Amino acid sequence: MSQKITSIRGMNDILPTQTPLWQWLESRVRNLLQSYGYGEIRMPIVEHTELFKRSIGEVTDIVEKEMYTFADRNGDSLTLRPEGTASCVRAAEEHGLLYNQVQRLWYTGPMFRHERPQAGRYRQFHQIGVEAFGMQGPDIDAELILMTARLWRELGISDLVTLELNSLGDSEDRARYRDALVAYLSQHIDALDEDSRRRLEKNPLRILDSKDAGTRAVLQNAPRFDDYLGEQAREHFAGLRQVLDAAGISYRLNSALVRGLDYYGKTVFEWVTDALGAQGTVCAGGRYDGLVSQLGGKPTPAVGFAMGVERLILLLEQRAPELPAPADVYLVSTVAPAAALVLAEELRAALPQLRVQSHCGSGSLKSQMKKADKSGARWALIVGEDELAAGEITLKPLRGDSEQQRIARAALADTLAAQIK
Ligand code: ATP
Ligand code: MG
């Protein structure tokens, strides 16, 4: 026998037993985003490698170590998207969505990063991302955060997540801070990990994001970003905090929060949990006013965030919300299939919202009833010779303890309609 081919490490199948929870989450998110006036955009999964290098930054974990990059048959360097913001900006700019207008966009789909797979960290994972363009005040930053807070309430996970907030200032503030940070870290260079030492020259702010214990110890006494914020960034941050305070959203100020991508400035935030071990960030984002022009467009203020769907699913599994059963009715029949399948079609036509699963393939009444039970349906409809001759159907409740009854076929749709809502 030839060897079986398995899936790629860190790239998961999502099975029919798992998809109901995914669909439940996705539909809640979709409704929420629609209710705030966000429109969906769908981008390709593959882009020119240059797009990610220019936006995420050459000296970042993602670009240095994590991208799936390959030459296509023409020799062009392409990359499976590691995140959605760069593609979204590219698409919005390409189609003229950003010129002189406001846009509220969202997208969802798989992202690819070559990381060490573990619970909550995969090589193909899914994000739901939201991006808002053309608004420069802190009110839109606040709207995004209020929207995520509402989502956690609707998902029933508010008590599992906390908000961390920081401001990275404008580009001049960052330059001044960078100098101060480099001056400080240069005095402790021996205690830094290898990546951080290399980044000291090329991209020192990334060092704040280091997970290395030695580097983290040095960072304890490093200069703090908030001492370097200019007036404008300070005002912006105060404006955001005012809304959050007024809306009763609590947060923790974390001056070491820099995020793993270079394009952020001013507001950055993360929703973190301690319910998922080391993979603590479930949603992260911030303002990136410089990115659109960095990618060749007119300067356009922008702010966004992305949620990690797998991590949200892991949190939801701890809560086990009640999900709809896959079917309302399981149709059991011991007569010719034509009669049963025609009945099922009649029911579907009369009650479009009714979910009907027909038994296919023969089997004794007993074995079909077992399958009916296993399907999770609320009722079994039984069509046997007897019922057929009498123009009736047996309706047998599969949950609870009400009695089974025989119903005239003509009255069946009305009876079921009264039960589902
Ligand atoms: P982390 O610090 O956990 O590596 P990140 O800062 O690299 O996260 P972002 O690029 O901001 O993550 O992506 C936004 C969200 O996407 C994260 O908060 C997380 O929930 C999710 N995410 C990122 N990388 C992965 C991954 N490899 N597997 C699963 N989810 C991920
Ligand atoms: Mg990462």
Give the structure's gist in a few sentences.
With 421 residues, this protein is an alpha+beta fold. Helices cover 39% and strands 20% of the residues. It is built from 15 helices and 16 strands.
Compute the number of helices: 15
State the CATH class of the largest domain.
Alpha Beta
* Whole-number mean pLDDT: 94
Stated plainly, the CATH topology of the largest domain is called BirA Bifunctional Protein, domain 2
Q: What is the number of E strands?
A: 16
Percent of sequence in beta strands: 15-25%
Structural class category: alpha+beta
What summary fits the major beta sheet?
8 strands, mixed
Q: How far is the N terminus from the C terminus? A: 52 Å
Low-confidence stretches: none
Shape verdict = elongated
Helix content: 25-40%
Q: Which CATH architecture of the largest domain?
A: 2-Layer Sandwich
Rg on CA atoms, Å = 28 Å
Major sheet: order of its strands? 1-5-6-11-10-9-7-8
| Total tally of structural domains | 2
The set of bound ligands, ions and cofactors reads:
adenosine-5'-triphosphate, magnesium ion
The CATH superfamily of the largest domain is Bira Bifunctional Protein, Domain 2
Overview of this structure, please?
With 421 residues, this protein is an alpha+beta fold. It folds into two domains: 19-170 and 230-319, BirA Bifunctional Protein, domain 2; 329-416, Rossmann fold. It has 15 helices and 16 strands. It has an eight-stranded mixed β-sheet with strand order 1-5-6-11-10-9-7-8. Strands 13-12-14-15-16 form a five-stranded mixed β-sheet, with helices on both faces. It has a three-stranded antiparallel β-sheet with strand order 2-4-3. A hairpin with a 7-residue loop joins strand 15 and strand 16. The protein binds adenosine-5'-triphosphate and magnesium ion. Magnesium ion is lined by residues 61, 260.
